Amino acid sequence: MREESAAKAGNTKLGARFGTTRWSVVLSSGKGSSEAEKAHSALSQLCRIYWRPIFTYICRQGYTVENAQDLTQDFFLTLLSGKLLQSADPSRGRFRSLLLKALQNFLSDAHGKRSAKKRGGGLKFVSWDDWMTDGQSHFTLPVQAVESWGPERLFDVRWAAAVVEQALRRLREECEARGRGRVFDVLSRTLAADRSDTSYAELGKELHADESTVKHLVHQLRQRYRALLRSEVSRTVENEADLDEEIRYLCAMLTSNERK
User: 142 and 127, same structural domain?
Assistant: First the structure.
């Protein structure tokens, strides 16, 4: 009975979480909802996290870096107005797909192809330097990939990297809040490494800890990282059925980048 009650409670929490994802909250901004302010805040946060896939896609369309920056800003301003979300279909489930479709529609619009001076009326969503500072990325794409991959693939790989980096950012913040910033700095490199390639003895020397302690810390870090990664992806899908499939897809995108 206890297990059954716990399962029901877990399902209730899960249902509540998927009922208030960034996807569903943002959609309300395009439906004339009274929750527009909350939707605006959610979308603003998404813009800060996921601007790189947008910017990369626009650059791959042949725009200069300067024009791509302006178009990225303009795209988010248009999103915040709700105009590109009014025809969004919640059954599509993935915010990644929604944004890409909205971006394609935006770029195909004749107004979106005007000169940088005319676009946006001189308005700025946020300082580009602030975006670069807040969203520093350690993820790099091979030159060959940038030149040969299609814009959709580049968008998805960059999106996958943004999800992973956001999960790592949250994990770092948690570790630092607990006074374990040094533990994160040393052990975070094991999160993407094969277990057979992990030398607990060497890590122990860096942390001045024995191997059993290091193994325990690595296990804890990996568990929490997986949970945060799952949490981050869950915020961009509309229901649980899409969650595992989206995680597998994003992992495949990152793996495809490693092979290049």
Answer: no
Residue 86: CB partners within 8 Å, gap ≥ 6? Answer: 30, 31
For residue 32, which phi and psi values (nearest 5 degrees)? 65, 30
Q: What is the pLDDT of residues 40-61, one digit of tens each?
A: 676 677 777 888 899 999 999 9
CA separation, residue 60 to residues 65, 68, 105, 228 (Å): 10, 9, 16, 31
- Kindly state whether residues 27 and 129 are assigned to the same domain: yes
Measured between alpha carbons, how far is 232 from 193 in angstroms, rounded to an integer? 21
Q: Measure the CA–CA gap between 248 and 192, rounded to whole angstroms.
A: 15
Domain total in the chain = 2
Phi, psi of 237 (to 5 degrees): -125, 160
Whole-number Å distance between alpha carbons of 34 and 60: 37
- 195 and 212 share a domain? yes
